[in-house]
Design brief:
34% of the residues lie in helices and 12% in strands. The longest helix has 15 residues. With 152 residues, it is an alpha/beta fold.
Amino acid sequence: MVSSTEATKEGPDKNLCRDVTAERIRRLNLSDELKYAGIAAGFAYLRTREILFEDFDYDLRPADAWTALEALHDLPLTLYDPKKPWNLHEGAKVALVLVDRVDPSLLEWLKGRERQNLFVYAWAPGQIAQQLDGTRIDVRSVRDTLVKRFQQ
């Protein structure tokens, strides 16, 4: 479901989607009433913002990239942990890694993990690829992947 904020000059913080619709869905999903059991579903409240392609490298936050990459790989959305140098989401069919900072623990985890559906995204993919020493892992650029996808 998509909704505008409904903000006006008189009510700049007015947000029907956040304050009414999202809250109704949260309450429905928390309800113990059997009559709602068949319509409760996974839910995420997301906000969009415009980023100009020429400002992409400066304005895209790792948490935003994480959400976009999970959605691109058809994974349920999870919270990005900024304290970790890399985040991992292992689904039944796909494993997704977003590397914010190259870390020895990442390189150790990747070694011997030649998996067909393992996707590693990094801001500087060359730093990782050169250290994998022939391991066949798909290391992709965050920027190139998202810019290409959203320009379509």
